Amino acid sequence: MRPLLLVLLALLLLAPLFLPPFYITLLNFVAFGSLVALGLYLLTGMAGMTSFGQAAFMGLAAYATALLTTKMGLSPWLTLPIGLLFAGVGALVLGGLTVRLKGHYLPLSTIAWQMALFIVLGSWTALTGGHTGLPDLPAVSIMGFSFRTEDSFYYLSWAFALLAAWGAANLTGSRVGRALRALRGDAVAAASFGVHPPSLKLQVFLLAALLAGLAGWLYAHFLRFVNPSPFGLEASIKYLIMAVVGGIGSIPGVFLGASLITGLEEWLKDILPKVFGRTGNYEVIAYGLVLVVILILAPRGLWPFLERYLPHPTPRRPQGMGLPARQVQGLEVPKGEVILEVERLSKAFGGLLAVCDLSFQLRRGEVLGLIGPNGAGKSTCFNLITGVHAPTKGQVRFKGQAISGLAPFTVHEKGIGRTFQHPHLFPEMTVLENAALGTYARTRAGMLSCLLGTNRREEAAALSEAYRALERVGLAELAHHKAGGLALGQQRLLEIARALASSPEVLLLDEPAAGLRAAEKLELARLIRRLAAEGITVLLVDHDMDLVMGLVDRVVVMHYGEKLAEGTPREVQKNPKVIEAYLGQEVA
């Protein structure tokens, strides 16, 4: 893979020496398109948010530099941060209003503001020149050298494009990159390990807009002329098609798609008028046909299809010292004292009362079983404790502080980890990356640090910590396999490893033995006993009564959302109400 990358870089560097000016101009447009598509890789490919409005941010920066250089005489380099500021402010305002939208509402809203900006740029003749545009932008220059020709500008545009790709690659392999991919797959699971979905979505929305703004600044000073046409809805659709055709989930795919669509666009402008006998914007139709064909033959885009035939580096064990112990929030609770208290907790979903007036206490260092028939409200109780649902009434207290109603990422940061009744994993990520998501709340590198690659030491420590967690559950040999290929029992173990990587004080295990074989259940029981001996408090839900009764210190029995009984395993097994409702009579 690395030799291929070096060859491609060498060809890029030497291209102006053997290609005619027309193709160098096309390569400049490929660089501009790649910058916008890189933003879509981060926004859509990683975070799962679809935008049809990236050309709007490109236009904001382009018009900002055009107005400031032509009407105020500012240097183009001085207008670069100002143009990015315009694009960034637009992203913060629009993103703050729309990134919380789900489903088709987000892309529809991006279409609305894209069209609105296009209308403003075309109508505000006194300022923007209307559809005639603004001509005579000054050329970009450095120390007396002017980037006036397509050959000289080529190196400037590709320097920015490759720098952006390097930053995107750094971000992809970081804690922020894992969190973004987790948001795309399952925002609830991501939030349960410390990820703040609204904040992170807004950050990546801003970053994608800045990349589009940079492309707009380069575009304006390359042509030295701007008008609204390159910043309309059709342009935004073209950039999204670039990313999808090449493979929106990969950085090389972005460049491949930008090259293909840019070249195809020029070719179609010559061919289609001859076919239809007149000029028109027939390219959009052709884009759609090309997209349909590629998605049928290669559903994930061209690059993932080609990547299968390229050599892959041999994965290695992460090298690092691991992360320091989690900083305990709040007061230290001595062993045996109450660490988690559920008091008269209730949750209603419409007319259904899933949990009703439930109370119990969890003491530090113990293993408490929460059992009951299907539909008893056990998983709902877990969701109430971890902040996935807000209670209708009642309270949850952790180390004496009320946590009911707090967001899942806030609850997790206090020291509560969990698994889910049905495994909430991210199949496109490796087993190691899934486990490393558990270290999110224990690491601190922000988006800028991840982009610049200054987080390498912390990242190595996080991956090492995740690998150790995989060793504890027996999955280390599968660390570099995709999580989507795991059997159900292995998925359960991976969820436990992810929770262990977060170094929780209290661990909530929701049916961890489901799908495990008998030998694996014995190993799970030994693991839980070791965790309890290390001081981790465990709240366990499972239907395997042999496992539960042989493992826990106390049992709480739920039935139709209410607490039916509480006591030691021996006491609960002899309770007539429990026998009648759940355990059943032993056959003589």
From TrEMBL:
Pfam families found in the cross-reference section: ABC_tran, BCA_ABC_TP_C, BPD_transp_2
Main localization, broad class: membrane
Localization of this protein: Cell membrane
CDD domains attached to this UniProt entry: ABC_Mj1267_LivG_branched (cd03219), TM_PBP1_LivM_like (cd06581)
GO CC terms of this entry: plasma membrane
Molecular-function GO term, any one: branched-chain amino acid transmembrane transporter activity
Keywords: ATP-binding, Cell membrane, Membrane, Nucleotide-binding, Transmembrane, Transmembrane helix, Transport
Transmembrane portions of the chain: 80-99, 111-132, 152-171, 202-220, 240-264, 284-306
Transmembrane helix keyword on record: yes
Chain ranges of the ABC transporter domain: 340-585
Matching SMART domains: AAA (SM00382)
Topology of this chain in the membrane: Multi-pass membrane protein
Name of the molecule in the record: Arginine transport ATP-binding protein ArtM
